[in-house]
Amino acid sequence: METAFISRLRPLLDAIAETMDVYIPRRIAEHTVCSRYDPGVPRDPEINEIRMSTPAKEFLFPLRELAAVLPQPLEPEPVRPFAVFGLKACDLRSMEILDRVFKEDEFEDPLYAARRDKMFTIVSDCSSPGESCFCNVLGGRPYAEDGFDLSVSHVTDGYIIQGSSPRGRSFLFSHAELFGDVPDALLSERAQLREAALERLAQAHEGMPVGIPLKEIVERGYSSEVFDEEACTCVECQACTRVCPTCHCFYLYDTKQQDYFAKMKMWDSCMRVGYAGVAGGANPRKMLGDRLRHRFMHKFVWFVDRYGIEMCVGCGRCIDAETGDVDMRRVFTRLNDEILDTGGKKVKAPR
Q: Which domain-ending residue is among 148, 170, 204?
């Protein structure tokens, strides 16, 4: 059994909650965040039509965590299995990016790896992509086709549940009594809904450089004044990197407790003025425009050179979170327009 039908979400989540903690979308004003599922609450959970404001990295790469203890070595607490429901295709792609960093051969982060291995991923289709979503510009889609344990698609009178991984398919087989067969008409309806969401994204970004390698656009525009001009509205709130599902910079700091020393790991941001500061007070990126350029170069040039994929999934969270008015899509468009205006002359970026 790889595809099944269920009329309500609650029995599905109750079954998963028997063996692990489950986190589900919860609506707060205009935003959707993640909260722990309580089987005792007599209310059917809702499916989120757009990606949550909460990035998946919060479950794998906490904002602040204990990394080491002296003089005794740190013995991490065992990670309990947990499930996150309502993830989107862009969230899966973001976790693939984080895997490249935190599970890289001899540089593997054991804390990240333990959480990643215990995470049960339940994705759902984006039925209403937001104004800030631009996953299609980076080759993404508003629905996932693989890389998940279970997927949920809302259709008439219920939900199509699909298993992708061995864990997901095993769950469907072991709980077959919860599910029914999927009529061909509902599979056709799912396909039509997915196509409609794709079309909305295509129409929303009709004027953008879709299909053109963003690496080339950013690399050629390295010396452009666009970065300085776009950074004029930036107030260094760092929200763009904090809410980004792929930004993974962190710093380590030491703290003394009563009977031991601890080394803490905490999120950092390349948009922070002191991020690139070195001993003696020197700072190669004091200006906001330089920091914005660095952010784009990291995501679309240097990360591609190292890992072969872009460090952006087009989720649009940075656009929504901005206190200023920096919009990645506008930066791409302006840089591409400059390249066309200058006849496509190559601008080499320094290494």
A: 204
| Residue 284 dihedral angles phi and psi, to the nearest 5° | -75, -10
Those residues with Cβ within 8 angstroms of residue 317's Cβ, 6 or more apart along the chain or in another chain: 51, 53, 55, 132, 243, 244, 245
User: What is the predicted pLDDT for the residue at 103?
Assistant: 95
Bond preceding residue 71 cis, omega within 30 of 0:
yes
Report how far apart the first and last C-alpha atoms of the chain are (Å, whole number): 51
Burial class (CB in 10 A: 0-12, 13-18, 19+), 51: buried
Same domain, residue pair 77 and 186: yes
- The answer on 218 and 188 residing in a single domain is no
Is residue 86 one of the residues assigned to a domain? yes
pLDDT (tens digit per residue) in 219-252? 999 999 999 999 999 999 999 999 999 999 999 9
**Per-residue model confidence as pLDDT tens digits over 287-338:** 999 999 999 999 999 999 999 999 999 999 999 998 999 999 999 999 999 9
173: its two tokens: 């087989």
Q: Which of 176, 204, 232 is the last residue of a domain?
A: 204
In a domain, 350, yes or no: no
Is residue 4 within 8 A of residue 153, CB to CB? The reply is no
Domain coverage including residue 302:
214-341
Please check whether residue 347 lies inside any domain of the structure: no
